[in-house]
TrEMBL record, chain A:
<dbReference type="InterPro" id="IPR036374">
    <property type="entry name" value="OxRdtase_Mopterin-bd_sf"/>
</dbReference>
<dbReference type="GO" id="GO:0008482">
    <property type="term" value="F:sulfite oxidase activity"/>
</dbReference>
<dbReference type="InterPro" id="IPR005066">
    <property type="entry name" value="MoCF_OxRdtse_dimer"/>
</dbReference>
<dbReference type="Pfam" id="PF03404">
    <property type="entry name" value="Mo-co_dimer"/>
</dbReference>
<keyword id="KW-0479">Metal-binding</keyword>
<dbReference type="GO" id="GO:0020037">
    <property type="term" value="F:heme binding"/>
</dbReference>
<feature type="region of interest" description="Disordered">
    <location>
        <begin position="1"/>
        <end position="26"/>
    </location>
</feature>
<dbReference type="InterPro" id="IPR006311">
    <property type="entry name" value="TAT_signal"/>
</dbReference>
<dbReference type="GO" id="GO:0006790">
    <property type="term" value="P:sulfur compound metabolic process"/>
</dbReference>
TrEMBL record, chain B:
<feature type="region of interest" description="Disordered">
    <location>
        <begin position="27"/>
        <end position="47"/>
    </location>
</feature>
<dbReference type="GO" id="GO:0009055">
    <property type="term" value="F:electron transfer activity"/>
</dbReference>
<protein>
    <recommendedName>
        <fullName>Cytochrome C-552</fullName>
    </recommendedName>
</protein>
<dbReference type="GO" id="GO:0020037">
    <property type="term" value="F:heme binding"/>
</dbReference>
<keyword id="KW-0732">Signal</keyword>
<feature type="signal peptide">
    <location>
        <begin position="1"/>
        <end position="25"/>
    </location>
</feature>
<dbReference type="InterPro" id="IPR036909">
    <property type="entry name" value="Cyt_c-like_dom_sf"/>
</dbReference>
């Protein structure tokens, strides 16, 4: 990876004996990130002072996955390195989210194996607190365990972060870091049972082969996990296919976890290893403020001590209005169909309601059963906007415990997780 | 109709709220204050826009620098640019509106967990000062 990057980079070098155009910056660059990058490659980075805005060294740029955005349709790019992009609500109307509408959440760079679509020699290791450590090829996974296909919601833990005030650090997702593709694989629980989980098992630890943003091959990009009880439920998959095709490079080729109901970050992409641990996993982005919430409610903007932050587990109940698109013109005095999806981190959704009067009154929507547990559920409602004018449709899902979505942001937290506020669209009746 | 009214009220309130400044906002917690001042630019075609935290620095009329990845062209931009793009693009910086304490924490996280090289103290001060000035929820 690094060698390749270095080789690809050499062709652009200014050549020996030539003074790089940014020589005047050398003093400044000493000790900064860029010089560290140069040191890693064993050469100077030929950075022009007149370099176009946003340009990054070619050695680094090739692996962000940005080129693959041509296969996406209508997504909003929040950042190009790491690549993160979300889907406007009206483009999430499909029951099964197609590849071109699925959000992208990269923590690092896309590994070369995924870019090359090469799964040659790929193995999955299962070790740690197990009786029989496993090292399985993808063919062995496919042949030794029951193959299952399920629609499972994948949602970033920080979806909705943009609505927290004061702001929380991270990508400012609005509503579109969510999707419900159809995944094919084997049950995580079946594989763990085959390995024989020991009594002392507490947590899983997931590892992939994606590359750290710094390019440092030794650095872990992200390594999260779930309580062993969650891992042993039947819902989670080790998947090799999405929507009937090999998992695309941006979404974890050739193997990934899909553990529904928890923040998407537990569903490790580019999966190489699952280690069973006898303690809560402390890998990259498990500790500090990452994917953690305060243990008690805090006022917006409060500095919470790290020791009071607890790992985020189940995602809250949520819904989206996927039709019509916000701002649509509709006929006054007639029935207008409004529809979308609803899902919950603790299983299925119990009820769905919409309001066209800013939450003063609510009407129940028709809610379809899920294709399987943790698939999002289609809901539909006919709303009648009595006279011409401006209306908002507010949508509110209720989970099996009777817990429903708030009309404003729920508990502020330092990193802006778990915002399940009601989605609103505008309708103009004429 | 109601939203139009809200829109007008918001426009009238904004200068007042800004004049008060963040210091007085700290006096006594009041969720209604956030409801009155949250949106920098309400949108009549998308009610979610009005619910977002402000995405512009009201007093920050600084132009974006083409040379430094679109960062506001102000003292500290160059140091910030070269320090940060070693790992990530400026897009993630430009999205942030966070407290000073969160910037300090993020800095520590990048150094300790993400392998960022700690620059000389004066460069560090220039960068953190720049971030806290232009990507702040406090000013």
């Amino acid at each position: 990876m690094t060698d390749q990057a270095a080789n690809g980079h050499r062709g652009d070098d200014t050549g020996p004996g030539q003074s790089p155009p940014w020589a005047g910056r050398r003093e400044f660059l000493r000790g900064t990130g860029l010089s560290a990058f140069g040191a890693m490659l064993g050469m100077a980075v030929p950075f022009g002072a007149n370099m176009p805005a946003g340009l990054i060294p070619a050695a680094l740029a090739q692996d962000t996955g940005l080129d693959l955005m041509t296969g996406k349709n209508g997504l909003i790019v929040l950042g190009d390195r790491p690549l993160n992009a979300e889907t406007p609500a009206h483009l999430l109307d499909d029951d099964v989210t197609p590849y071109d509408r699925l959000f992208i959440r990269m923590n690092g760079l896309v590994p070369q194996s995924a870019l090359d679509a090469s799964a040659e020699g790929w193995t999955l290791t299962v070790d740690g607190e197990v009786e029989n450590p496993l090292e399985l090829t993808i063919d062995e996974l496919k042949s030794r365990f029951e193959n299952v296909t399920r629609r499972l919601v994948l949602e970033c833990g920080g979806n909705g972060r943009a609505f927290f005030n004061p702001g929380a650090s991270g990508n400012q997702w609005t509503t579109g870091a969510v999707g419900c593709p159809e995944w094919t694989g084997v049950r995580l629980a079946d594989v763990l049972r085959e390995a024989g989980v020991r009594d002392g098992a507490v947590y899983t630890a997931h590892y992939g082969n994606d590359v750290h943003l710094s390019g440092d091959p030794e650095k872990e990009v992200i390594s999260r996990g779930v309580p062993i009880e969650k891992a042993m439920q039947d819902d989670g998959l080790i998947a090799w296919a999405m929507n009937g095709a090999p998992i695309p490079a941006l979404h974890g080729f050739p193997l990934r976890l899909v553990i529904p109901g928890y923040p998407g970050s537990v569903s490790q992409k580019y999966l190489t290893r699952i280690r069973i641990r006898d303690q809560v996993h402390d890998g990259a982005k498990m500790t500090g403020y990452s994917y953690r919430l305060p243990a008690y409610p805090v006022a917006p903007g409060t500095e919470v001590p790290e020791s009071d932050m607890v790992v985020m587990t189940e995602m809250p109940v949520k819904s989206l209005i996927t039709f019509p698109q916000t701002g649509a013109d509709v006929a006054a005095g007639q029935a207008t169909e409004v529809r979308g999806h609803a899902w919950a981190g603790n299983g299925d959704v119990a009820a769905m309601h919409v309001s066209v009067d800013f939450g003063q009154t609510w009407q129940e929507a028709r809610l379809e059963p899920p294709a399987n547990r943790f698939a999002w559920q289609r809901w539909r409602a006919e709303v009648n906007l009595p006279v011409a004018g401006y209306y908002e449709v507010w949508a509110r899902a209720t989970d099996m415990n009777g817990v429903s979505q708030p009309s404003t942001t729920p508990g502020w937290n330092p990193r802006g997780y778990g915002n399940n506020m009601q989605h609103r669209i505008a309708l103009i009746a004429a | 109709m109601r939203a139009i009214t809200t829109f007008t009220a918001l426009g009238a309130l904004l200068p007042f709220a800004l004049a008060l400044g963040p210091a007085s906002a700290q006096s006594r917690p009041d969720p209604m204050r956030a409801a009155a001042t949250q949106a920098a630019r309400p949108s009549l075609s998308d009610p979610m826009v009005a619910l977002r935290a402000p995405t512009e620095q009201p007093a920050d009329g600084v132009a974006a620098s083409a040379e430094f990845g679109g960062l506001p062209d102000a003292p500290g931009a160059e140091e910030t640019y070269y320090q940060c793009v070693a790992c990530h693009s400026t897009e993630i910086i430009k999205q942030q509106r966070i407290t000073d304490a969160r910037w300090d924490d993020l800095w520590g996280w990048m150094v300790e967990q993400q392998g960022m090289v700690e620059p000389e103290p004066e460069i560090r001060a220039a960068i953190l000062g720049y971030l806290k000035t232009h990507f702040s929820s406090e000013r």
